[in-house]
Amino acid sequence: MTAFNKDQFQPVPHTADDDALLFSKPEFKAAWDALEDKYAALSKALKMSNDADWHTTYPSEPNR
Prior knowledge:
By secondary structure, the chain is mainly alpha-helical. The chain is built from 3 helices and no strands.
């Protein structure tokens, strides 16, 4: 058996029943829904970045 390492990722089990319980709470559902716009904007920015071939347009070298 390996020793516990506090710096190592330790996944927490999560089931469909956990989701049902969380989403049955109005406060949680409202907070979850409020995140939709933020993640939609992030997704759009990431897509634009990939479409523009960001790593070629802005190489990781000092400005000249």
